[in-house]
Every structure is written in C-alpha cells, then in structure tokens.
Write a structure and sequence with these properties.
Blueprint: E1 8-10, E2 13-14, H1 15-29, H2 40-52, H3 57-64, H4 68-80, E3 84-89, E4 92-100, H5 102-124, H6 128-151
Antiparallel strand pairs: 1-2, 3-4
Helix pairs in contact: 2-5, 3-4
Length: about 150
C-alpha cells in the first residue's frame, strides 16, 4: 500500500494512517537505549514467556518467526544465562516447556522502566490535548493487541 492509498476501516479510522503511526512509533521505541544490550529476538522471547506463560519450543519458534534450530540455540543460551529453564510438559512427558525465570522477568521489567524514563521527557513536550488523546486511545490499542494475539493463536 502506498501512502496515497487509503484503506478505511470505518468512517472514523484510516487503517493506513494507523499503520503508519504505529510503524513510526515502533521505529523509535524498539531502538531505545537500554542498560542491558540484548538482541531483539532474545527480548521478544523473554517478553513472550513473561506475558504468555510457558511455551513449547515449537510454539515459540512459530510465535517468534524463527527456525526451530535457531530457537533451540537461543533457548540453550538463555538457559545457560539463567533467564529461562526447561521443564517437562505435564500434559506430554516427551515434551518440554520453556519457562522464564525471575532473572529473565527482571530484564523485561528493567527494559520497561528504561523505556518509561526515555518517554517521560517527550511526553512532557506534548500538549495537554495530545496527552489526553493518547490516554483515550490506550484502551482501544490494548484491545487491538488482544485481538491480534487471539487471531495468532
């Protein structure tokens, strides 16, 4: 879709504008400096486990969109670093579930706090109306993310 094409979802929302705004924000947001330098894939796996609970390797590979051998290597490194652990799947003794550890969860918490610290001065530069508009959009954006997660299952 080019920037001149419009794909209205409803009269009050242009999907192209929404997509562009999210992409612009994500470009900045995912590159915010952090205390710990970890790869995007590592952070994504930790985030998936922190918010979605334990997962099988096959499910994580699908969710993270990486090959199973690549994910297995990553999980092995994360396990060695004490960020995740493998435990038997209680529903299938042949399989294992990857669980995030407290240390792995702490990385996500620190990253969240770091991002908040970087955003605060920028938010302070917004007008009160802009801040209210963002606050008003938060429930809808959260719901959109939930719907996307449900559709991906």
């Amino acid at each position: 879709m080019t920037s001149t094409q419009r794909v209205p979802l409803h009269d009050d929302l242009d999907v192209g504008d929404l997509t562009q705004a999210i992409e612009n924000f994500n470009r900045y947001y995912i590159r915010l400096p952090t205390v710990q330098k970890l790869s995007f894939t590592t952070l994504s796996v930790l985030d998936t486990l922190a918010h979605g609970g334990p997962k099988r390797l096959t499910e994580l590979a699908r969710t993270e969109q990486i090959s199973q051998p690549g994910l297995t290597q990553l999980v092995t490194r994360l396990e060695r670093d004490g960020l995740v652990e493998r435990r038997p799947d209680p529903t299938d003794g042949r399989a294992v579930l990857v669980h995030i550890t407290d240390r792995g969860r702490k990385i996500g918490q620190v990253r969240h706090e770091d991002r908040g610290r970087h955003l605060l001065p920028l938010i302070a530069r917004l007008t009160p109306a802009e801040r209210r508009a963002i606050a008003a959009a938060l429930p809808a954006l959260s719901r959109l993310a939930e719907l996307g997660a449900q559709a991906g299952r």
